[in-house]
Design goal:
By secondary structure, the protein is of the alpha+beta class. It has a domain of 68 residues. 19% of the residues lie in helices and 27% in strands. The protein has 2 helices and 6 strands. A 4-stranded mixed sheet has the order 5-4-3-6, with helices on one face. The protein has a two-stranded antiparallel ribbon with strand order 1-2. A hairpin with a 3-residue loop joins strand 4 and strand 5. The radius of gyration is 24 Å and the shape is elongated. 14% of the residues are buried.
Length: 125
């Protein structure tokens, strides 16, 4: 794989006050690497209809949502926006389980759920 070569441009008339030399700008070409931004997939509507509980995992900054059919692990709090409105309402009606030492971490997750509901940021069809 070939490495990108920068373009060096001299800024005529602009001098470094310490060295008294003209300054230079280094311009790197755009890369093709990050053109695709990974977005979280939307969960199907009513995925939490058989909701049991949700809990904060103190070993990792994750939350697990347990239903009768499956367990859903969420690593990023903004992935909660992938749930539909009725599923977000289910999360707001239940307290998150956590260890007392990690109460503040768990509150951050519930505040994201509250913001999703308040600003209508849940998944739409």
């Amino acid at each position: 794989m070939k490495t990108a070569e920068p373009t060096i441009k001299r800024n005529l008339g602009v001098r470094d006050p310490h060295t008294k030399r003209t300054t230079r700008s280094v311009i790197w070409p755009a890369t093709d690497k990050e053109k695709i931004i990974p977005l979280a997939k939307k969960f199907e509507r009513g995925i939490l209809k058989n909701f049991k509980f949700w809990a904060h995992d103190p070993k990792m900054p994750e939350v697990v949502i347990v239903t009768e059919e499956q367990s859903i692990w969420i690593a990023n709090s903004y992935d909660l926006m992938s749930f539909h409105e009725e599923d977000v309402l289910i999360l707001t009606n239940h307290h998150i389980r956590t260890n007392e030492k990690y109460e503040e971490c768990a509150k951050a997750w519930t505040s994201v759920v509250a913001n999703i509901l308040m600003h209508d940021l849940f998944a739409l069809d």
